[in-house]
Structures are given as C-alpha cells and as structure tokens.
Specification:
single chain, 233 residues, alpha/beta, Rossmann fold, 8 strands, globular, SAM-dependent_MTases_sf, Ubiquinone biosynthesis O-methyltransferase
Length: 233
Amino acid sequence: MSAINADPAELQKFSELAHRWWDPASEFKPLHDINPLRLGWINGKADLLDKTVLDVGCGGGILAESMASAGARVTGIDLSEKALSVARLHLFESGLSVDYRLISAEDLAEEMPAHFDVVTCMEMLEHVPDPASTIAACARLVKPGGHVFFSTLNRNLKAYVQAIIGAEYVLNMLPRGTHEYAKFIKPSELSRHCRNAGLDTHELIGLSYNPLSRVYSLGRDTDVNYLLHTRRA
C-alpha cells in the first residue's frame, strides 16, 4: 500500500458536509448545477454506454451515478468514509448500480492497472498534496487508448477573485475555506503532468458561471474553472 496522497484536513472538511451531498440547495449546489454539463461533455467524447468507468474522488456520487445512468459500469473511489456511505445510501433511492470503494487512486492502480475504458477525476486535484501522483495513477488505471478526464481551477488573479472571494465570501455559493489558492493548477501545469504520465491532451475547455443569470456554461474561457480531455497513448 502506498502512502496516502490526501490532506486529512481536506477529508475532514468534506466528511463533515457529507450528509448534505444530495441536497441540491446545499453547499454542493454548484456540483448539481454543473453535472449535466460535465456528463454531456464526457459522454460526447467517450460514449459511456457499456464502458467500464472509474470516478476518482467520487464523493457522494453525483457524477458516478449520472455516468451509470448513461449506461456505464461505474466504480467510484474516495478516501472519505462518510461521503461513500452517503453515496451507497443514495443508490437505494436511485436504483442505480455503482461499486463504491474506500481506496486511493494510487493503490487501485497497483491492483487494477489498465482496467478502465474511462477515468474521471473532477474537482479533486486542487484538494490533494501531490496532484501529479493522482494524475499518474489515473494514467495507469486506464486502458491504452482509453480516456481520462480532469477538471480543476486555474491559478491567477481572476480565479482567486471569482472562486474564493466571489464564490465563498460574496455569493456564499461554497463554504468558506473550501479552496486554497496555492493549490490551484494552471492548464500548462496540468498538461505537463499528463504528458509525463503518458497521457495525450485532446481538448481543453472552460467552465464559466454567470452570477446574473446563475447559469453555468462550457466555452473558451479557461481563466477560472476548466476541464481537460486526455487519452492514454
């Protein structure tokens, strides 16, 4: 078993909120709002039907369940027992099938190398001590030619103002302290980590929020939130 690539304070923070994961009016409202966009983009690139899919850092299972509903055979992994308990409990309500496991991406990569058609790692890299380690594990987990999807936050003044000052302190969209600016990752840095792990980058796309219309959209603006589609060579 490898050393756990996780920040205990981060795990504690999300564990304390775990019971609210499936409340669309809770602190997790942004995840509920952006999930149709994430799912549609991933499905458009990888066609999830009958695919073997891994969701790394699945939390309470919002994306994992939606990929299962699109016809994928989904495994979700996380290091928060409380979040996984909530995810498993919600399966009784949704009637979907997802295999949830308490294990790190690094350890699962040792156990199941080159096993998955698709790997997703969304809104997680900015919360771990060593994102390059997580990226390398995702690359080992996917089959040659398979798809790996990441999403995270850019590191610049605009991202700091919108994602921390705006979202956490002004609009109260997220609990204060959700994000730490120093852990934000520039697209060039993420792309470099991916190349080093043997992943070819295919598309970089931005995720934007309009505070007036309260609507999220995908587009060219990668200044704050962005998603990256890669494939294993």
